[in-house]
Specification:
Two copies of one chain form a homodimer. Helix content of chain A is 40%, strand content 22%. The first copy, chain A, is α/β, with parallel strands linked by helices. Among the domains of chain A are: 70 residues, Winged helix-like DNA-binding domain superfamily/Winged helix DNA-binding domain (Arc Repressor Mutant, subunit A); 125 residues, ATPase, nucleotide binding domain (Nucleotidyltransferase, domain 5). Chain A binds a DNA duplex through helix 1 and helix 3.
Chain lengths: 399, 399
DNA sequence: ACTCTAATTAATTCAGTCAATGAATCAAAA
DNA sequence: TTTTGATTCATTGACTGAATTAATTAGAGT
């Protein structure tokens, strides 16, 4: 009912401690003096708060800094080894585990295959075993488990509601939490990438942006006011099935004209097959078995028809994204994923399509940012989500 | 840089005062006791805070309430006459002015025509005159001016960046603020409707929703976490030109396949003309001059071809909205505007189109809400915006 | 029927608490 | 000696809880 905590001394303390921690995390190594200036807290107050935080091992003092004259400042550094985070990425046939410090740097990584036909219970067993093994092997405490999973995720209730890729329905992760005795945070995989982008700096430049991941499907992680936006039931960003062509191609989802139907590997494969059948493309004619790689090679060998095919994919993507840009007016679009392996041909066409939108006249231009999406990015995003959670401002009423 | 205020006694006080005011605004008449229970503040603290707020005329004591036993509670009511708000709606050829109390109830209303060819300076003169006249005539203070205007609005800088309807570019309202000596808050008109919806209760049910206004153009007011979302440069919600058909009809904006090209009065008129030319529709054949009204009458008379035309408009709208639903996952879509005069035919088709989207399997259904959009709604929204601003939690660092 | 008392709930008073604050002081360096 | 960083300490002020006062009802006694 009440959205904010009431004001009392505890709130002041929590708030200012968070403020000081934030300063050291963002600007450290930093002196007490500078913290006082940046936060506009009194110097004596900073001394007092830093003392208690030093006792709790949030920081370490790392000698003195430089100064032209007078006493040298004592520099405080964030202790990224106060505890650690375990991040998981659940894929179709394997689970990848990463161990991260509080600066979201990877300390260890491992992965286990599983049989998709196994029961959820068995897979939970597998996860809990690995997690508990890591926890037992480390003297430091584990502050949380971050899990990136494909599908419709209900973050607040720790549930995967529906995941076509995993073929899971209504899977409740609170049971995993019970087994590992550490807080478990679940997140949609596209959102994990958005967390990763927020972590290393795009969030400073842009208040609002979207991260598009193009792989088996097309997904979007949405950032509003530097926070992940999940929608009313946790499924915002499912842009694979927005319609770019009324009465267009039939999509596997049953609709016609979906974005995915016009951009997926399946679409590229079908169109390439068509070209091959019509014997229009010299490069494709030489290939025996069409694969995504051989199609790309055909384009790279200079085959214009195949290059045009990729350009069309770029246009299709651009049309879909233009709708989103008009509706959402993001500061940037971040793009990544294996679906962009032919980015050489796709991106210029996409850029061209996105050139004019409702805001193109505005002085602040829409930025299009390409990123490499390797395995580690997803894990890092999942870890970053937990760390963000750990250090978020303590303003809201604890439930 | 720092997003939140530092914690000190002033913050506690500001926060708790806001908390108490909020209680009385939402649940009043209410006793000190109940405020203490709801906010979890101490009873003595509530007495103390209420005392100071009574002195500042935020509340009035309105006698005692009921109780089975023991001392009767003294009820506090929000004083909606502490000050008032002036709201403006700027239209193509007229400006409508409304005076509102702090419960967003209209106290007075007037409108003045202006010549669209007049200079902005002259129109500002007109506005300032009316506003200053009202301010001079009232003994109470005016707390703010809320202005709803069509086009791309930069709220933070009090600027209309670009308004095709008014044919205004880069109009700076800080000059108006100087003339009236009262804070001026500018807002896009679709957002004003969203404010109105937030005000009377949709915001309690839904965290995230969108308000679609269908008039000369199609616009959307977007609500995220009970707050208006404006996008990176203030132009979120410009959905008139999202593309629903690749290589479709040419739109006046230069693009092909825009939502507006498939839903506007212009589209309906063109299609009806086409029907008339082909002499396919008996009802339209009898009409001399085609108008939006005569077309609607043709449908109402039972002409199936015209009814189908409206149904197609509904489908087109539905297709556009489905994309938005998949991307944004709102809890509700609120629809209104004169473009829906044929809602009898449009809405069923729209509903059908929206029936299956990515979340349709989720237990929480997407709600579609129709509202009447009369003149007063826009004014009320503009007033509600100012009042919301006036009473918002004082958590963020004052800039 | 009237008065008085106990019980109950609402509101206020008041001394105590504690985190921030600013002035004074200490520490370290040029 | 001067300058800058860090600490100490008395003061401030908003919340807090216990005690008190205010207002009301039920019920007992006359």
């Amino acid at each position: 009912m009440d959205r904010f905590r009431r004001g009392n001394k505890q709130l002041i303390k929590d708030l200012n401690e968070a403020l000081v921690i934030d300063q050291v995390r963002r600007f450290g190594p930093i002196s007490r003096k500078d913290i006082a200036i940046n936060t506009s807290l009194g110097a004596s107050t900073v001394t007092y708060i830093v003392d208690s935080l030093l006792k709790e091992k949030y920081f370490t003092e790392i000698g003195s800094g430089i100064s032209d004259y007078g006493r040298k400042p004592v520099l405080l550094q964030f202790n990224q080894r106060k505890s650690y985070i375990i991040a998981l990425k659940i894929e179709e046939k394997q689970i990848i585990y990463g161990k991260f410090d509080l600066n979201a740097r990877m300390l260890a990584k491992i992965s286990h295959n599983f049989n998709p036909k196994d029961s959820v219970k068995a897979i939970f067993r597998l996860m809990a075993d690995q997690i508990n093994q890591w926890i037992a092997a480390d003297t430091l405490p584990c502050s949380g488990i971050g899990i990136a999973a494909p599908g419709l995720v209900d973050q607040a209730n720790q549930k995967i509601i529906h995941s076509p890729i995993l073929e899971w329905e209504e899977v409740d992760f609170s049971k995993l939490e019970e087994e590992v005795q550490v807080p478990v945070y679940l997140e949609n995989d596209a959102n994990a990438i958005a967390h990763a982008e927020l972590w290393d700096g795009r969030g400073e430049q842009f208040q609002n942006f979207i991260c598009i991941t193009i792989g088996a499907g097309v997904g979007a992680g949405i950032v509003v006011k530097n926070e992940i936006y999940r929608g009313e039931v946790g499924g915002a960003g499912e842009i694979g099935h927005i319609i770019i062509q009324r009465d267009g191609l039939l999509c596997y989802c049953g609709q016609r004209g979906c974005l995915e139907a016009y951009t997926s590997d399946r679409f590229i494969m079908a169109e390439a097959l068509h070209l091959k059948e019509l014997k229009l493309s010299p490069a494709l004619n030489q290939v025996e078995q069409l694969t995504m790689n051989s199609i790309l090679q055909a384009a790279d060998s200079g085959d214009e028809l195949v290059q045009e095919l990729y350009q069309r994919v770029g246009e299709n993507l651009g049309i879909g994204l233009k709708s989103i840009v008009n509706f959402f007016n993001p500061g940037a679009i971040v793009l990544g994923g294996e679906g962009l392996r032919a980015k050489k041909y796709i991106i210029p066409a996409l850029r061209k399509e996105l050139e004019d939108h409702f805001f193109s006249r505005h002085s602040k231009k829409l930025e299009i940012i390409l990123i490499d999406l390797e395995e580690n990015q997803w894990l890092m995003g999942a870890a970053a989500m937990v760390i963000t959670q750990l250090f978020k401002e303590p303003l809201y009423r604890e439930v």
